[in-house]
Amino acid sequence: MKPWILALLAAAAGAQTVDLTKPPRTPPLADYKLPPVTLTRAANGLRVFVVEDRRFPIVTVRWGFQAGSKFDPGNLSGLAETTAALLKEGTTTRTSREIAEELASIGGDISASTTPDHVILSASALAEHLPKLMEILGDVVLNPSFPEEELELYKQNREQELLAARSQADTLADERFNQVIYGKHPYARILPAGDSIARITRKDVMAFYSRYFAPNNSVLIAVGSIPGKISLPSAYSDWKRKDVPPPPAAVIPAPERRLVLVDRPGSVQADVRVGRVAVKRSSPEYFPLLLANSMLGGGMNSRMFREIREKKGYAYDAHSEFVPRLEAGSLAAVTQVRNEVAQPALADLLAIMKDLGSTPAPVAELAIAKNFLSGTFVLSVETQQGLADRLTSVKLYGLPDDYLDKYVTHIQSVEPAQVRSVAAKYIDAKDSALVVIGDASKIAKDLEKLGKFAVEKPQ
């Protein structure tokens, strides 16, 4: 026998036996250390944060504004997203095509997204072309022309997208759930009304832009191969600050038990949402609830996944969603189940939610959730895009400067009693809305075992 084979056999014989019945032990994760951040404050109120990252020859930029959909006038839902989408479709010096061609020449990209609280422009390019990227981005933000033909094209496309989205049961469920828990607050809207999009004019877009796009109402984040302070075109500092009006006054309603069944004839499954208004992003209860949500339905180790999907086979998808925002947040258990098991599946789901708030969280289960969330966070900030997104959230939500440095510590410091407390307060369905989208003729009678559902037609 060859000597190297004998050596391998000897090593195998002396190797320690591995117990395959137990998962490998995860060592404690160290705190994340945010690289040095350079802050420049312009006289007009613009704050610019720069993080040097020389690992890759690219730069990632985020420019966030307090100008999200909650700022839409009541009769013009979708105005914020329309304004954001049109920013790069033409300026006073460049057409939409010219913007696209110039970005392509530097390996760059600019896009815009809208949340209920914010409008965020995302940009990237090769590091050597950073000055050009910032010049184009500045033109897009400071000098948009909102061409009439681009607005009409956007409206036509968006109306078709909304029709397609609302043909899906999960969209209907999300919309109705948010309407039930948020009432008349702008957070109730997750999509604009189709007829509202049709009413938006160029004058409306220009007025919205004029009200909310100001240097003192924004924060600029740049991450990448940038030597120290970023050099901005003079136009940035010449941009005049202005007084920005607050969003329309609105009150977050108190949570209440409501059972709603939206009739969707012909559906072979029921889309279920169970939840309520929860904490805002800056709440001290954020981290305990983040862990409670992970244990409820945050992955393959969660209770919903194990019970609703694996053990009972009620559904393929069973998860929970915790969505914290600037003024409040929401937490919902989400699943889609076959009509014939809609009632027992919902009953089991309610029991899972109640149990999480009535019994202490097992130490081992909590440890798995802590390691999962800590590891996910550390992985997310390893990329430029992830770090830029996280840092933008910190600044837009007014979180402490050391928030990312202490993120893992905040996760690991949560005690079982805290998880039980927030679960009893925000997850136990006693004050929750139960929204079901399905064929009422097939499931209404069975659902009556859980209480009296108000049967509605799709809006």
How much of the sequence lies in strands comes to 15-25%
Radius of gyration over C-alpha positions, nearest whole angstrom = 25 Å
Biggest beta sheet attributes: 6 strands, mixed
Under CATH, the topology of the largest domain is which?
A: Cytochrome Bc1 Complex, Chain A, domain 1
Along the chain, the helix and strand elements come as HEEEHHEEHHHHHEHEEHHEEHHHHHEHE
CATH superfamily of the largest domain: Metalloenzyme, LuxS/M16 peptidase-like
Number of helices: 17
Percentage of residues in helical conformation: 40-55%
CATH class category label of the largest domain: Alpha Beta
**Poorly predicted ranges (pLDDT <50, ≥5 residues)?**
none
Strand order of the largest sheet: 1-2-6-3-5-4
Average pLDDT score:
92
Structural class: alpha+beta
Please provide the count of β strands: 12
Written description of the protein model:
The protein has 459 residues and is an alpha+beta fold. The protein has 2 domains: 37-238, 2-Layer Sandwich (Cytochrome Bc1 Complex, Chain A, domain 1); 258-456, 2-Layer Sandwich (Cytochrome Bc1 Complex, Chain A, domain 1). The protein contains 17 helices and 12 strands. It has helices at 3-14, 79-86, 96-105, 130-142, 148-165, 169-182, 194-199, 202-212, 234-238, 286-297, 303-311, 342-358, 363-380, 384-396, 407-412, 416-426, 440-447, and strands at residues 37-41, 47-52, 58-65, 109-114, 119-126, 218-224, 258-263, 269-278, 318-324, 329-338, 433-438, 454-456. Strands 1-2-6-3-5-4 form a 6-stranded mixed sheet, with helices on both faces. Strands 9-10-8-11-7-12 form a 6-stranded mixed sheet, sandwiched between helices. The protein is globular.
